[in-house]
Design brief:
The chain has about 325 residues and is α/β, with parallel strands linked by helices. The chain starts with a strand and ends in a 10-residue tail after the last helix. Helix content is about 40%, strand content about 15%. Helix 2 runs parallel beside helix 4. The protein is elongated, with a radius of gyration of 21 Å. The relative contact order is 0.14.
């Protein structure tokens, strides 16, 4: 039997409470429904949570994750609330087995290493369009490429298309010499690195020469329809709204689209709006579309990366969405 306990969470201000609880307290009611054993009382800018200790701890994690998401994206959707509740449930059960990749990718098995990555893998298996949003090092691109290579080897698809917008991250690269492949290589290098980790370089080269694997900048997608393919858009936060619409409508029969991005690292010139943030808002309620939010807890690079991401996030001024 769980020990009873209670905690009080203090929000930054009433403005944060309004956005956290949602329109007519819809988000708050969703959380209450997810924790029927708890007594959750919201007053002004405080939240009181009482009940079994394990459940209180889970609810506290949910509110913490949603506050972090709100700081990053300035909006909370029902899908974000459901994702946070599911994540807290998996984190509370560390002995629960993490779903493996259906098959071998390359010469070794690729497995999700965190509950968030496990949700991401399941979403890619079960949906035709997946948005994966999270900080650097959470495996967004790596796992998407692993799933694509596995489906290719299983014969479920005939082609992999790896796409990235050619947006410079805070520095001007200037004129780049060489043919088109040489010019776009700096932008696509992260995708190539992930691909080369999945298969032998010679095999990857052979697939690319035979157009089984295609790596291209986003601008090359216009006017195409891609059937029986996995199409991965990396750095999706750096697309404009028209670019994202153009890309998402490239999906043909038997295809999957996976869009990855970090909405805290938008390199578009102001005041251009991010196509990724806009797409998540527009598409969150459509069936067979999954929106997965990964967090610092899902970072699987060098242990210092998690600390670095957290340090920069804590130093950011809080953004507020203007009312009206």
């Amino acid at each position: 039997m769980n020990d009873e306990t209670s905690v009080t969470l203090t929000l930054a201000d009433r403005d944060e409470a309004i956005h956290l609880f949602g329109h007519h307290d819809h988000n708050l009611r969703m959380i209450k429904d997810a924790f029927p054993e708890l007594k959750i009382i919201a007053r002004g800018d405080t939240i009181q949570i009482g009940g079994p200790a394990a459940q209180v701890e889970r609810a506290e994690r949910v509110f913490g994750q949603l506050r972090q998401t709100l700081q990053q994206q300035e909006i909370l959707s029902p899908e974000m609330v459901r994702t946070a509740v599911a994540a807290a449930g998996q984190a509370a059960a560390p002995d629960q087995p993490v779903a493996p990749l259906p098959a071998m990718a390359g010469s070794r098995s690729v497995r999700p290493r965190t509950p968030g990555q496990s949700r991401y893998m399941s979403a890619m298996r079960e949906n035709d369009l997946v948005f994966a949003i999270g900080p650097a090092g959470t495996g967004k691109t790596y796992l998407a490429v692993a799933v694509a290579v596995t489906l290719l080897r299983q014969g479920a698809i005939k082609k992999i298309v790896l796409v990235r917008p050619a947006v410079e991250a805070g520095e001007k690269l200037g004129f780049l010499p060489g043919d088109i492949a040489a010019k776009i290589n700096p932008y696509l290098r992260p995708l190539l690195d992930a691909l080369n980790d999945m298969m032998e370089p010679e095999q990857a080269k052979r697939y690319m020469e035979n157009d089984i694997i295609e790596i291209a900048p986003l601008a090359f997608m216009r006017g195409r329809t891609l059937n029986q393919a996995v199409i991965i858009l990396d750095e999706g936060q750096n697309t404009t709204i028209p670019q994202m619409q153009m890309f998402l409508t490239r999906m043909g029969h038997g295809s999957k689209i996976i869009v990855t991005g970090d909405v805290t690292q938008v390199d578009l010139p102001r005041p251009t709006r991010s196509g990724l943030i806009d797409a998540v808002r527009r598409l969150e309620k459509i069936d067979r579309i999954a929106i997965i939010h990964l967090s610092e807890a899902d970072i699987v690079r060098h242990p210092l990366v998690q600390a670095i991401v957290k340090a920069y996030e804590e130093d950011k001024p809080r953004k507020r969405r203007s009312e009206g």
